[in-house]
Amino acid sequence: MTTKVKKAEIISLNNINKSYNDMRILQDISLFVEYGEFVSIIGPSGSGKSTLFNIITGLTDADSGDQKISTNIGYMQQKDLLLPWKTVMDNICLPLQIKGVSTKEARQIVKQYLDMTGLRGYENKYPNQLSGGMRQRASFLRTFLTSQDTMLLDEPFGALDSITKSKMQKWLLEIKEKLNITILFITHDIEEAIFLSDRIYVLGAKPGIIKSEISLDFHKEEKTMRLVSNELLETKNEILKLL
Ligand code: ADP
Ligand code: MG
């Protein structure tokens, strides 16, 4: 007899509401993320996506609703927060040092990940000497080293040119497997969401409500196949109609 094992929900939000200055930003947001999933939230700008991440991470309080978080979360915010006066190595070490790890030990830890993330050879450069893609790799590694379990990524590739972006998307899928992490991802790029995700929540604007939850069950093992599939266009159409 086979029983379907329900995976563990590590993030679950129930009826989250949030207003700023009497303006309802998020309304009745309920969503969940299971261990190992890649879940995206897609919505127009101003729909409250970043606010939602701030609520999940506790930077902002919701007005009502509840949330259960049973995972360690690393949060890579929309803005690149690398310090310009520190090298890539020192930037990545920073959260470890804040946790009390010695500089020497922090560097040893970071070195173990340089090859995997493609940052080898860039560790002594300063952020402004890096391309946009490399900066995002450095931010990603720094965020990963704060949690190692679940990463909240807020439009990490939004500012990249389309060729770099497509390379970084493939990089992210590979690194997710290697590091064995769960990802909750914000984007306003529909194709990006369809390429990367196991599930997508579509957020409408003013107020931000969840309009739909879409499971992407095609080409799950070989996601690059999605980019040339009919399902891509079908799903894209479905999402466009909702936005
Ligand atoms: P998104 O990330 O989807 O673009 P945001 O969550 O950044 O949307 O913002 C949603 C809305 O909430 C916007 O209208 C924004 O101006 C407003 N907002 C966000 N943060 C604050 C804040 N701290 N104070 C007042 N208004 C805010
Ligand atoms: Mg945002």
From TrEMBL:
Keyword terms: ATP-binding, Nucleotide-binding, Transport
Transmembrane segments: none
Lyase recorded as keyword: no
GO molecular function, one term: ATP binding
Ranges of residues in domain ABC transporter: 11-230
Identification of the protein by name: ABC transporter ATP-binding protein
